[in-house]
Design goal:
Number of helices: 8
Order of helices and strands: EEEEEHEEEEEEHHEEHHEEEHEHEEEH
Helix content: 10-25%
Strand order of the largest sheet: 2-1-6-7-8-9-10-11
Strand content: 25-35%
Distance between the termini: 46 Å
Shape: globular
Oligomer: single chain
Length: 371
Amino acid sequence: MLKKMIIKNFKCFKNETVFDFRKTNYRLLEKNTYEKTVKGALFVGENASGKTTAIQPVKLLLDLLLADRDISLNLYQCFFSDNKITELKYEFLIGGHEINYGFSFSGNRFLTEQLEVDHDEIIDRIGTNAMLNLEKEDSFYDIDDSLLFLKRVYFNTKFSGHRVLLEWFDYLKKSVYIDSLRRRIATYNGESLTYRNYLKKYGTDKLNRFLEMNHFRYSVQYDHEKFDEEGREVSFVHEDIGISIPMFMESAGNQAFINILPAILTTVERGGMLIIDEFSSGLHNKLEELLVSYIMQYSDALQLFFVSHSTNLLSNSLLWPDQIYAVELTDTDGSKLLRFSEEQPRAAQNLEKMYLSGVFGGIPEYGIDKK
């Protein structure tokens, strides 16, 4: 589980910003925690405040270590800072062991990289030189400064059987990224979780069990023999009216829902990190509540990092204040975070009303607010 993340000069986050995912002293909703860490964080705020940027350091780590494609680091440097060095640090808790990993870059070149397991130094890199301490201490020179040294070590040595590091990478590889607005899903273990590939491989049983358990009035039907580019092989069987509607003719909301449901069910079952941008795209508020509640209740080693504009999710019965962050853009100082628990709201207080009244920040003011 990711217990802390620190970023500096990362896109709109100019100043050093700490994301603390350790559980606080709130006692209820114990199902929302695992290994003294919260099982998810919601980021709220006005448009263009930095909410998507808040979840991108997690995705960037996964892309740099596990994706088989080039990553342009220039895109992640702060837009308005004189400091041209971007720094990222991550603290994980895996099976009771602490993993601290961090790196810095400028332009498209990595400058530094450090890895510690339980405070034992494994990697210490400066520029193109690095020290590696696995079975023995080795020195490396003239390494590629466009790649993370950790990635090279993993793919070349599989960490020489280092159990904790292997468990960490196994956790990372189970992770999934969803861009709900653009309907894109990225996985890091080579498996496709698009709804069509999922249905082709696993059928409809798990999806329909979820729908039945939660009292949906339709089920999903899949007929591989009807495959075409418009998706006619997938249809919704509406029980109330006794008709079957092809996926491409269904409502945009139902299409958005079925598009992300296989990825959600899979990560709940396997663990890892589930990163969802624009979670509210096409989904009813109550459906968002259901999915968040399901993830918190039925997952163990899973963390949900997501962005939504649906303020009904700001509820003590769904998420505790230590799981919610307001993101606010403050001119040339860049974006900043406020963790709701920093204001120490009481259990009986209404988080949604407090947020909308401006207690936590991250609230826009438009023309209607000035009248």
